[in-house]
């Protein structure tokens, strides 16, 4: 049985004015932010996990960082974004939020910046270049201790992951191929207990043993 998006979203509580503004901005300017059903599920699982430190790969305009910080008042979040304009927007939106003191934005390529001084993170949220998920995971998973969790968004990739490769637009085939390789690799990884949640654009949750 399938449920309509309208029915699913009827369970979502109203957001504050800033978040609604960010959602409208993202929609009007084609900025990818996490879909509402996906961020609601992510935040509920984070409330259960109760991480104190979170690393986010892919800040965009700061929407998911603010949502996570609001869900976890006692947490601190480090978020990395390489696009300078988005970094500027994210810092502005975050400064206007009530959780600005919980969030640190780092400008740079997540594959090049060094955050090892932060020692470990209880949770890592990956929502950046889809074709680089394997590289992001390999770089940052060592910073997650046993019992920590890595969350990966956009595994469904707007339905492209479900298509035969020859039916995927040519310019996106390498990305989808890399995404499938990563999915196969992590689902069979001995160090992680991983599950795919068909919510939003597809959320993969990996518990480190």
TrEMBL record:
Catalysed conversion reaction: 5-hydroxyuridine(34) in tRNA + S-adenosyl-L-methionine = 5-methoxyuridine(34) in tRNA + S-adenosyl-L-homocysteine + H(+)
GO BP annotation list: tRNA methylation
Keywords: Magnesium, Metal-binding, Methyltransferase, S-adenosyl-L-methionine, Transferase, tRNA processing
Cited PROSITE patterns: SAM_OMT_I (PS51682)
Gene Ontology molecular function: magnesium ion binding; O-methyltransferase activity; S-adenosylmethionine-dependent methyltransferase activity; tRNA (uridine) methyltransferase activity
Gene3D superfamilies: Vaccinia Virus protein VP39
Binding-site list for S-adenosyl-L-methionine: 34, 64, 81, 109-110, 127
Record-listed E.C. numbers: 2.1.1.-
SUPFAM superfamilies attached to this UniProt entry: S-adenosyl-L-methionine-dependent methyltransferases (SSF53335)
UniProt-annotated binding residues for Mg(2+): 127, 153-154
Enzyme class of the recorded protein, top EC level: transferase
Oligomer status and interactors: Homodimer.
Family in the record: Belongs to the class I-like SAM-binding methyltransferase superfamily. Cation-dependent O-methyltransferase family.
UniProt function note: Catalyzes the methylation of 5-hydroxyuridine (ho5U) to form 5-methoxyuridine (mo5U) at position 34 in tRNAs.
Protein name: tRNA 5-hydroxyuridine methyltransferase
Source taxonomy: Bacteria, Bacillati, Bacillota, Bacilli, Bacillales
Gene that encodes the chain: trmR
